[in-house]
Write a structure and sequence with these properties.
Layout (H helix, E strand, L loop, with lengths): L6 H23 L10 H4 L3 E2 L2 E5 L4 H8 L3 E8 L5 E9 L2 H5 L3 H4 L4 E9 L6 E8 L4 E9 L2 E2 L3 H15 L4 E9 L10 H15 L3
Antiparallel strand pairs: 1-2, 2-3, 3-4, 4-9, 5-6, 6-7, 7-8, 7-9
Length: 209
């Protein structure tokens, strides 16, 4: 027996199909790639807000496998109070790998709550994706950068940008992911992770291209 799709479901189904197909079409059929510079290893400062950092031991093969990228850097910052935060920046042409639950690829923490917050930045408001662990002890914050601007809804963004990418060539998306202890509640929205993220994003936005 053949079942017909109700007309009221047609539009939502088409939208979902478009969202699913756009990353595949762009990655498979757009040959020209726009290269951004400088490399993230050079663009992300070793000192942020007066706090020095050291490279982590994350393997390049892991980043290649998870994000299909060779342009990345990860550093651990330890402030005067001993508070640690890890900053990872990855640039990839496979946008979906960066925006679809990046925490699953880079963190062992089980995050249960997610929100998108608007945070003030040096060059204008930033869309910050905030993840909180079940016990509230750890916060991760990440931003998605495209041509120096942050993205709040990456699914809608890639759908609307698909014609430009198909015509002009692929341009990479940059993920900046920060993980740190939650900090005190009195700090409000500016948790250590968010504060470090804003500093890292500002540095990348200010980096000469």
């Amino acid at each position: 027996m053949t079942r017909m799709l109700s007309a009221r479901y047609a539009t939502p189904v088409l939208v979902l199909l478009a969202l699913a197909l756009v990353p595949t079409v762009v990655n498979s059929y757009v040959g020209r790639k726009i290269v951004e510079s400088p490399a993230l290893r050079d663009a992300l400062p070793e000192v942020l807000d007066g706090t020095a950092s050291m490279p982590t031991d994350r393997r390049a093969t892991t980043i290649k496998k998870e994000f299909d990228s060779e342009d990345w850097v990860e550093r651990e910052f330890v402030d005067a109070r001993g508070s640690r935060s890890v900053v990872l920046a990855v640039r990839s042409y496979d946008m979906k790998r960066l925006y679809h639950h990046p925490e699953l690829a880079v963190s062992e923490t089980d995050y249960e709550r997610e929100s998108v917050e608007r945070v003030d930045g040096k060059h204008g408001p930033l869309d910050v994706h905030v993840l909180r662990s079940g016990g509230g002890s750890t916060v991760a914050a990440y931003a998605l950068l495209f041509k120096g601007r942050t993205i709040g809804n990456p699914y809608l963004f890639q759908l609307t940008k698909a014609p430009e990418l198909l015509l002009l060539g692929q341009r990479p998306l940059t993920l900046v992911f920060v993980e740190a202890p939650a900090g005190s509640r009195s700090e409000g929205v500016a948790t250590p992770a968010i504060s470090r993220l804003v500093s890292a994003v500002t540095a990348l936005q200010s980096s000469p291209s």
